[in-house]
Amino acid sequence: MTTLGAILTFQPFEVGLVGNIVLIVVLLCCSALMSGSETALFSLSPTQLDRIRKNDNPINNAIVKLLSAQDQLLATILIANNLVNILVISLCNNLIDALVIFHSSGWEFAIKTVAVTFVLLLFGEIMPKVYASYNPQGFANIVALPLKACNSIFKPLSYVLVKYSDRMQNKGIIQPENISMEELENALEITENPSETEKEMLSGIVQFASTEVEEIMRPRMDIEAIDSEENFDEVRRVIMDSGFSRIPVYKENLDHILGILYVKDVLAYIGEGADFEWQRLLRPAFYTPEHKKINDLLEEFRSQKVHIAIVVDEYGSTLGLVSLEDILEEIVGEISDESDVPEELPYKQLPDGAYIFEGKAHIGILEEVLGVEEGVFDDCRGEAETIAGMLLEIKRDFLRRGDKKSLHGVRFTVLSVSGHHADEIRVEKIKNS
Q1: Residue 365 burial (CB < 10 Å; 0-12/13-18/19+)?
Q2: Has residue 196 been placed in a domain?
């Protein structure tokens, strides 16, 4: 077993070493200030920065000036911190040599490395950064003036480094890393104490760019539209009953949209008779493909100054309708006004525990109500979004009253059919016997 005496021998302490120790302590303080300043200055919140700008004094002015050229500031901090750390390492090495005689070069290297690294990390990096993260403005006030002086001293060198870095980035040698949607969602998950409203809004923003029009559109069967052959009395009735400010007008069927009727255009003629030629009030319809991203559609709404679009498939057939309100609700949640009526749930529970769902109910709502794993029906739904669509996808034929299907421990029974569409479907979990 190796003894301490076999590794090293301590030498008597000389008074001349006091100056060396004091200088090391001073340099460690400088290293701490540099390390902490990076954390403090780049952690200032918008509110704190606004308060600093409004309060005119030398320290606040220095902070504002430093942050106005962040690349140069970061270069200055790195240059100063590395110079100080090199001096600390050199002085610590000399101090250890003056106090200790090593009998093995291997142990000498190991002990010096561990000792100096521990001192630098603890006092020059970890402690100041922890303190600066908890009190960024206070720490920034301490380092602002010294950093301003360092910025002037090291300006030639920092300028060269910043320009060289910019040139490498422009040539593609250094490329900014793109943040993935998954990383943003993970960041949202670890956000401290967000309210449900804030969490929903942030989640909506994260998913906004990846959402397609077909995911938020009002399906074709739910579109409130007017036949172009209707008289003005019927038009007035539809306007009053629907509560919508923009209504599509079609000829023969919804695949032939003639235009959009704006209710505000009708107001000036509200007293006209049934034979009034209201069709001349139509404005051109705006069309969008089903797979367009809603962030792109929002930009088109803004540039074209429209609030509503007809969603069509690759053959030009009408699939649904999407409005500006539908897009905004993806971020801020449900938007209600005084004309809105509360929406009824697309299902109701029976005394025996089963449910009756509308055929057009979304599969996601079904999964949520039943308490099953999200995406459990993905292997059998195909491209379908609704319960009726999923059953149609499986049967490969029109649904009929009494049709039954069991999927992943859930039994579906078609209760009523209108035309070729299943209106009501009984849904129940299959009990294990």
Answers
A1: middle
A2: no
